[in-house]
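Metalloregulator ArsR/SmtB family transcription factor
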Amino acid sequence: MSALPALGTPMPERTKSRLLELVKRHGPLTAQDLAQRLEVSVPAARRHLGDLQEQELIVCRTERPGGRGRPQHVFTLSERGEAAFPKTYSTLCVDVLRHIESLFGEGAVLRVLDARNVELAGRLRDDLAAAGSLGERVQTLAARLDEQGFDTTVEQDGDVWYLTERNCPNLTVARQYPQLCESELGLYLQVLDVPVQRDRRIACGQAACRYRIG
C-alpha cells in the first residue's frame, strides 16, 4: 500500500487549487491568512503563491488594512486567474443574439457582428500597418489571436500562408450562430486585404479552423 501524505501537507496541485479558491472567495489575502486557512506553513504558502504568480494566475499588491496601519502584501486573482473559474458569458451571448434575431430578423445578427468587425478591424490595422510583407501581417494577426485564446499556428507553402486556430474560445456561440464564423472570415479579409478562404472549422466538428491566405 502506498504511503498517504502526512497530515497538514496536502498535495501541491490540490493546495494551489484550494489557494485560488480562497483568494477568489475571500481575497485579497496575505500569505499569513492563506497559510492559516490552508493549514500549512507560511513558507509553504509563499512557495505556492510564487508558482501561481509565475503562471500569472494571481497578482500581489501592497495595501493598508482598513486604509491605515502598516502596509502589507496581499494577493488577488489576475484576469487569467479569474478566467480559470466557470463563467456564463457564452450563455449570455447566445441569449442576446437570440433576442436580436427574434426582434429584428435573421440578418440582424450578422449586421451586429459586422458592426463589431469595423471596430476590431480599426485596431488590427494599426498593428498590421507596421508589418511589411504578407507573412509578417499573418504572423502579427496570429499573435493578436493568441492573446484572445485561439492558439494559432502559421505555415507557409510557396506564396500561400495557412493560419490555423487550434482552439475556439467562442465555440458555444459559433455552434448555434454560424454568422460568427462568417464574420471572422470577413474580418480577416478586411485586415489582410488578400484572398482568404476557410477549409476547416471547429464548429463543424473538425480539430481546427484553418484559413488559406493569399
